[in-house]
Amino acid sequence: MSNVNLRKAAVIGCGFVGSASAFALMQSGLFSEMVLVDVDHERAEGEALDIGHGMPLARPMQIYAGDYDDAADAAIIIVTAGANQKPGETRLDLVKKNVDIFKSIMPEFAKRSCKGVMLVVANPVDILTYVAAKYSGLPVNRVIGSGTVLDTARLKYLLSEHLGVDSRSIHAYIIGEHGDSEFAAWSSANVSGVPLYDFCKMRGHTHFQEASQEIEDSVRNSAYEIIKRKHATYYGIAMAVKRICEAVIRDEKSVLAVSSMMKDVYGVEDVALSMPAIVGKDGIETLIPVRLDVSEQRKLRESASVLKEVINEVL
After folding, report:
1. CA 71 to chain CA centroid, nearest Å
2. Which of 61, 147, 199, 244 yields a CA-CA distance of 20 to 30 A from 175?
3. Which residues pair with 161 in a beta bridge?
4. Which residues belong to CATH 3.40.50.720 in the chain?
């Protein structure tokens, strides 16, 4: 049985997202040790060297390339490993490929009786969080997907621009699948306790329906817009990874829209998707089933059925 080193992180997969996450975590000062694991060991060594050379300019940290044995005692195991979509390849082809990768990786953690929290970041994150929960041997509360944490940050950013108010005063969530069926939980959104609709009127914005739809569409299409321009997204998600790690390592009990296994949330169960949850040292402490109106509840169930269809095809 491995003990947990609370000052240690493991990053599995050293592509754009994995290396950006490792860089963000190095700068955070949360950890004093970080192991990078990749099927291409030389790539992991290169990333460790590159980040390590900045140590004299940051905080002391041991960063190195290793294997699953080195990752076993990490407080947080961040899994970004996965294939990228190739030209002519369908989304389902990619899902199947990444599910197979996860089915080969997860037993490695089960074998080592890992006691840390697993944070799944690879896409499609909800499907892979489900696979991790089934195959990693970890209790479901300790398997978290990065989910819609970044989408929710994008929502707050756009609302902040629209309303001229600090984004940290906005309480609103994108929930459901991290993907095309995600949606904003408008009926529970507020600015420092003032319902969003009322706050909009207060700021002189009367076209709430049109503006909210435009903002929601913009959030949903953000990744496509970034990929169109620079072929990948990695800085935003790396900051989301850092934020989730902070909540776990500091036992903050922060409410974050992470992906996790559902158990009868508005009639949704046996699927992983994003719903606000209290996140602390043991992973997910409890889900926060935010108030949803009838149409939003329907959207949540539709999002869940989209994911279940994919799960049935690939598992």
Report:
1. 20
2. 199
3. none
4. 5-145
Query: Which residue in the list 178, 205, 207, 231 is annotated as catalytic?
Result: 178
Contact (Cβ atoms closer than 8 angstroms) between residue 116 and residue 76: yes
Q: What is the pLDDT of residues 221-266, one digit of tens each?
A: 988 888 889 988 899 999 999 999 999 999 999 999 999 999 999 9
Nearest to 158 by CA among 213, 206, 202: 213
- CATH number of this structure's domain 149-314, picked from the four choices 3.40.50.300, 2.60.40.1180, 1.20.1380.10, 3.90.110.10: 3.90.110.10
Any catalytic annotation for residue 178? yes
Q: Are 54 and 26 in contact (CB under 8 A)?
A: yes
Classify 5-145 by CATH class.
alpha beta
Q: Please tell me the pTM assigned to this model.
A: 0.95
Element (H, E) at 83: none
| Distance separating alpha carbons of residues 246 and 248, to the nearest angstrom | 5
